[in-house]
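Project standup — Tuesday

K.O.: blocked on the structure for the chain from last sprint. Re-posting the sequence here as requested.
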Amino acid sequence: MLSYQHTYHAGNLADVHKHALLASMLDYLVQKPKPLTYIETHSGRGLYALDAPEALKTGEAAAGIGRVERLGWFAPTHPYARALAATRAAHGANAYPGSPLIAAALLRQLDSIRLAELHPQEFAALRAVMAPHGGIFEQTDGLQMALSITPPTPRRGILLIDPSYEIKSEYETLPGFITNVARKWNVGVIALWYPLLATAPHTPMLAALSAAHPAALRHEVRFPPAREGHGMQGSGMFILNAPWGTEAEAARLGKLFAALPRA
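H.V.: unblocked you, prediction finished:
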């Protein structure tokens, strides 16, 4: 069983990048009256406590969402800020939403949620957290689940692929997987998150994705390490069929990340 636990990393700068773009895309999609489907392949537990020992040990949340909120990156009307406020109102001031709860905060009753998480403890927590919001939750391989249900009903929608990359072969298999899903679901928004590491294992993956999907939006940000020796140097998103406004929000975030002091 894979050992990765996002509890240590929730609310870090990569989460800020990923979740701000996800919230922006969802906010645009729900402005149209037609229903949509939200699918996630690696859902985690859905809710995190930023005052938990794991979060305090790494300091990533303090260097992430804690820091950017002090800097005023997100107005209260920003969909990411609205999702944060809804989560804190329901679960306390130190609560942080994973992407499933961000989606639940922004979606409507007419929309559908389909989540997968393979880790048994994380899945149990996810199911408990998401039960009030409805949806279909499966303890299964998320990539297989997504491939089996696309194109979904409703057909409008978004797929978030957010692996831990503990399995190094994922860098090799994801381009083919995304191409297969896009072939079946050509109107779907398909968003892949990936880390920027010193060894740059994402480079061949992004080369293959960019060659197969030249019109996709690729956005990367760099940021200072949360602590000495921290290996992640930035965050990337590769998005097919990015909704209107996503590129502008990505550009805004890029300027904010670039202005962060490196020391």
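K.O.: great, moving the ticket to review. The beta strands are 37-40, 47-49, 95-97, 112-116, 136-138, 157-161, 189-197, 217-222, 232-240. The mean pLDDT is 94.
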